[in-house]
Amino acid sequence: MCILRDDAARRKLKGRAERGYTLLELVVVVSIVAVMAAVALPSMRPAEDQRLDHAVAWIAESVRFARAEAMRTGNPVHLEVNETSGRLRVTVADLTGPSAAPGAELRDPISKQPYDFVVSDLPDMRGIDITAKSFDYPSGGRTETVVFDARGLPFTKSSDNFMRLTQGEIQIALGDRERNVYVAPLTGRVTLD
């Protein structure tokens, strides 16, 4: 009798194993996996995105530093962003000549080094490129410099004419990813995309 029960139980289990899973069981499992993926994916951003975000934030803070230093000291501050070399430089503006030029160096408030950096040479910024800069002025000229006045407003001096900024944008890239830092023409405020 014991043998018959075991055979019956085995046949019953074998029949269930051959049937597979019900649709309801599959829907529940897929739903659980989808919820887990939705929770886990945002925290799994690629390291490149984080490096690019760090670089964009650093460049935005550098532009904000130039603007804040002009407002703090009351002296115009010159910001240069060189696309070719990837150089970012902040100095006092020399407005004595026909055009705005870099003057006395300013120092980074933390490192105490001159505020003159090649972005890709900084720690954790290898491979970061300044792919475009656009400081546009009414004359139609596009330059790699902008000057902030004592009120923090962006302008330039060219051929003895003072011109307000009409568009200010710095494009930063890492591989195929790009981000922008904007300088508002009317206020000089710095924003990111």
Labels describing this entry:
193 residues, alpha+beta, minor pseudopilin epsh fold, seven-stranded antiparallel beta sheet, 33% helix, 33% strand, elongated
Task: Describe what this molecule looks like in 3D.
The protein has 193 residues and is α+β, with helices and mostly antiparallel strands. Strands 1, 2, 3, 4, 7, 8 and 9 form a 7-stranded antiparallel beta sheet that branches. The chain has a 5-stranded antiparallel beta sheet with strand order 6-5-10-11-12, with helices on one face. β5 (129-136) and β6 form a beta hairpin. The chain starts with a helix and ends with a strand. The chain has helices at residues 2-19, 23-40, 47-73, and strands at residues 77-82, 87-94, 101-105, 116-118, 129-136, 142-143, 145-148, 154-158, 161-164, 167-174, 177-183, 190-192. It has 3 helices and 12 strands. The chain folds into 2 domains: 2-44, no CATH class; 47-192, minor pseudopilin epsh fold. It is elongated, with a radius of gyration of 30 Å.
